[in-house]
Amino acid sequence: MATEEEIAKVIESTDMVELVSPYVKLLKQGKNYKGLCPFHNEDTPSFVVSQEKHVAHCFGCGKGGNPINFLMQIKHISFNEALAELAQKNGISLNVKLPNSQKQDYTKYYELMQLATKFYQQNLTQTQSGKNALNYLYERGLDDKLIKEFQIGLAPSGLDQLYKVLKDANYLELDMLDLGLIGKNDRGYYDIFSKRIMFPIWDEKGHVIGFSGRIFDNPDKNLPKYVNTKETFLYHKGNILYHFAQAQPEILRKKRFILHEGQMDVIAANKAGFNESICTMGTALTLDQALFLKKYASEAIICYDGDKAGITASLKAIKIFRQTGINVHLVLLPDGMDPDEYIKKNGKEAYVTYFEEHIIDDVEYQFETLFLNVNLSDESVVEQVKRKAFDILRQISSQTAKDKFLNLLAKRLAVKLDSLIIDYNNYYTAYPKEDYVEESFLTDNFPNDVDNVAKNIKNDLFKRDYELRLFLYARSSKELALDIDSKIFEYMNAFSKINRQIWITLINNYYTQYETFDDKTFCSLLTEEQRQVYLDNLESLRGSTVVYDDNDLANIIKKMHEDTLKYENKQLSSQIDELADSAAKVAKISKKFQNRKQIMDVRRNK
After folding, report:
1. What sign does the CA torsion over 28, 33, 34, 39 have?
2. Do the domains at 4-103 and 241-360 have one common CATH topology?
3. What SS3 string covers 82-105?
4. Number of other residues whose CB lies within 10 A of the CB of residue 370
5. Cβ of 567: how many Cβ atoms within 10 Å?
6. In order along the chain (606 residues), what is the average pLDDT of each group of 10 residues?
7. At what angle do helices 339-346 and 348-357 cross, to 10 degrees?
8. Where are the domains of the chain?
9. Which end of the chain is more exposed for a tag (fewer CB within 10 A), N or C?
């Protein structure tokens, strides 16, 4: 562990205003600075930074502290990681190795990847061969500032130029191979990337961990447009969110992130001023990525391409964000365009205006997409659209909002509202909500035994309102969860089997290790089926604002007591039946035994 003197030196050397400014817009007030707290929503600034005392403090929620504490809280990292980061930033050498810092473990690999990044950048900007690639980027709307900000480079057309540079810097071939920078064949070592524009890929802490290479002037249409670094011990594409490290301050400030489909869209959005833009690396959004993002923001804005593939991907992303409790909004671009295309055609000012004026909620987005590229003169198509619209309306709890959408649906389909309402009521009666399993349960994130999981949800979970309320209470506070557990312990048989298992994990496993609740950490303790059901619990609780109430808990316990008695009576009845059946079997065997004994006695007397 670092000494007290080393820690004090790091704190004293850190400019607190400089550290906080990327996350909070600060205004000077006397000796101090003030801004809106990055840790909770507020309208009146209560976050105060003292440059003189090297401390920040929110008088609303109490968070903040010295530079190390602030960095730990804002980046969700350990003490050692925060200390190491600030020490490096201030040029302070620590005399001890910090055990929990990934950066300390992987320093040579990060340095190797950074050298490769600089090599690609220099090849783009300082060589004759880079001119064509630069012109291509200029034509795509990028300027020198964006090229530098995103560290864009060019892989040369030579066989092994990067390999030679890294070899001359005394890096090992094995490390280059492990990081996916070079390959090896009978002729020797060669560069993996050749004649492609190179986009560095960063982890959440800003380390380059891989590359995405884009083709730009090759007439061969069979070549893939993008080639990404292979899976390595640093780079796992299913976990990476492109540009997150750079976007994090803006995400924390705005409490939202904008999810795009590709890197060029992210870069174009940044050009327009949306610095909170990120994207996945050529894969669909995963549950782990959504749970990770939930730690930093409460709202997602999805802005995928307006084509069929983009809409399909958006609908899947909506379901995943719902499962994590993130509020979802979307922007549907016109004419199947992506952000890059829109900005090139109309300019960044027009894009900003369109974007801000066309943010809609997830239900409205689903509704709008029903009418894209469909022939409403075909009666069968009208029926399909109507059924899909009815399924969307199930998600709306507000009757006012339902009326609004029914009116809109009637106008779009050119039918009478009264007739449409009758059809909706008939459909709702034929497929009641408690027997309806939303498609979001059957996502690609849970491929194992989903049919059985869905059946469990359908037949068991939706009927147990008090289970959901107890989970809502228990997630809010460890103290409250343990108090509730002590009161319902003897009635646990009232829980459905799988929710009982989840509850036990929450009390006996999670809250024995952690003081506050975090969905991602808790999900990591559950089995696949348990996690699926738990995520459905979250979906059922989405938007709930139930405040803990002693009377409500008393009613829940009363209901659980009643259900427990029913369960125990059923068990006793079953046991009595078994005993009666066993008694009959014993009597039958006993009679058989007596008959045999009589026969044996007769034989002996003879």
Report:
1. positive
2. no
3. HHHHHHHHCCCCCCCCCCCCHHHH
4. 16
5. 14
6. 80 92 87 87 84 89 88 82 86 66 68 96 93 92 93 93 96 93 92 95 93 85 85 87 94 92 93 95 84 88 88 88 86 88 91 94 86 82 85 78 85 87 78 42 32 35 62 82 81 80 85 80 83 74 56 80 73 61 60 59 56
7. 120
8. 4-103, 106-228, 241-360, 379-431, 446-606
9. C
For the CA atoms of the chain, what is the radius of gyration? 31
Residue 40 structure tokens: 């909770």
Return the CATH number of the domain spanning residue range 106-228.
3.90.980.10
Give the CATH number of domain 4-103; options: 2.40.50.140, 3.90.190.20, 3.90.580.10, 3.20.20.70.
Answer: 3.90.580.10
Q: Which residue has the tokens 């090139």?
A: 344
Task: Quote the DSSP letter at residue 372.
Answer: T
H-only helix segments in 126-240: 131-139, 144-149, 161-168, 173-178
> Tell me, what amino acid is at 79?
F
The predicted model scores a pTM of 0.62
pLDDT the model gives residue 110: 93
| Amino acid letter, 337 | M
Q: What's the one-letter identity of residue 121?
A: Q
Sheet of 55-58, strands arranged across: 27-29, 32-35, 47-50, 55-58, 64-65
| Alpha-carbon gap, residue 239 to 235, rounded angstroms | 8
- φ, ψ dihedrals at 58, nearest 5°: -100, 125
Identify the architecture of domain 241-360 in CATH: 3-Layer(aba) Sandwich (3.40)
Residue 317 CA, chain-centre distance (Å), reads 9
